Amino acid sequence: MLYPSIDSLLTKLDSKYTLVTVSSKRAREIRENTNRGPMIERPVSHKPVGVALEEIIGNHLKYERITPLEEEE
């Protein structure tokens, strides 16, 4: 069984698309910048994507949806 499960992750985010976007951006940040390492103690996963998913499930990683401003005509 995978940890964390997709079902538990989707309780933290609104869609699978958001889950993929947030976790991939965080995994890239972990991989490319050693100063921005894991925000959790002793991650179960050794891969950056797994660590990012663990951060989401542990409420260490959040996102904010930005809505574009409507242009006035």
Automatic annotation (TrEMBL):
GO cellular-component term (any): DNA-directed RNA polymerase complex
A Gene Ontology biological process term: DNA-templated transcription
Enzyme class per UniProt: transferase
Signal peptide: none
Keywords: DNA-directed RNA polymerase, Nucleotidyltransferase, Transcription, Transferase
Catalytic activity: RNA(n) + a ribonucleoside 5'-triphosphate = RNA(n+1) + diphosphate
MF GO annotations: DNA binding; DNA-directed RNA polymerase activity
Enzyme Commission (EC) number: 2.7.7.6
SMART domains on file: RNA_pol_Rpb6 (SM01409)
Family matches, as HAMAP family: RNApol_bact_RpoZ (MF_00366)
Known role: Promotes RNA polymerase assembly. Latches the N- and C-terminal regions of the beta' subunit thereby facilitating its interaction with the beta and alpha subunits.
Entry's family note: Belongs to the RNA polymerase subunit omega family.
Subunit: The RNAP catalytic core consists of 2 alpha, 1 beta, 1 beta' and 1 omega subunit. When a sigma factor is associated with the core the holoenzyme is formed, which can initiate transcription.
Name of the featured protein: DNA-directed RNA polymerase subunit omega
Organism of provenance: Halalkalibacter nanhaiisediminis
Lineage: Bacteria, Bacillati, Bacillota, Bacilli, Bacillales
Gene assigned in the entry: rpoZ
